[in-house]
């Protein structure tokens, strides 16, 4: 079955006040984090990559990764496409708030790719490293798709302590999971700070003064979804403008985990949590970059990846022929 990976890249650069740090190399061979995600997705079996970006970063994006990845994908018979997230893309009849400056969040980012999706798909952030295990599990789940499973989704369930930054607070979707491994709720929790238990050295986590279970599941915006979900997402975007935008026109955001959480509470969908013990890392802060580079060096030393990142996939392609 065909499966697509949507990479949400429209927000890159916005956290750093100029310059696109997420497009900086993270290894000694010029690769960026997205290279590794694309490698892992193709290795798992995804055969289409959709980049969701903004028009104003298109040239930088194509120079840093787009043109190069398109060439790699052509050789591997993997399709590539672009979708563009825009502040002006709003529901018919809605009014654009005059002073609004930024697009409408990750829900709108996925919706931007609606016309490109006819198959089950996964969604990830552009500037996060997820690890091979999660891509393999999501792809296997999506292979079970049939139209009567249109409301059966999945999510990579990362362990909170494996997703924290050494350089400041982070926002994570803290998950509630039932005894059968299905998501029952996800709550966006800001300013989660990593700590250490002085008694035994174990990792701790706090949101403000509230302790969190460091072994709890969190969503890192890595979802497995069905093509029918796009219609539901579009309907939700209309409702978002009728409610949230009216209340807070300048700051309201249509966030994918918040929307899926609302569908869960209304019992309209199911979300299977696919546990992954891989360590997440990314560039939440500029100071994270050095640690990310060292993490990839370690993965290459351990043989998880080759210096010629896509060389193993090209070799597999030749062997299959």
TrEMBL record:
<dbReference type="InterPro" id="IPR029044">
    <property type="entry name" value="Nucleotide-diphossugar_trans"/>
</dbReference>
<dbReference type="InterPro" id="IPR005835">
    <property type="entry name" value="NTP_transferase_dom"/>
</dbReference>
<feature type="domain" description="Nucleotidyl transferase">
    <location>
        <begin position="6"/>
        <end position="192"/>
    </location>
</feature>
<dbReference type="Pfam" id="PF00483">
    <property type="entry name" value="NTP_transferase"/>
</dbReference>
<protein>
    <submittedName>
        <fullName>Nucleotidyltransferase</fullName>
    </submittedName>
</protein>
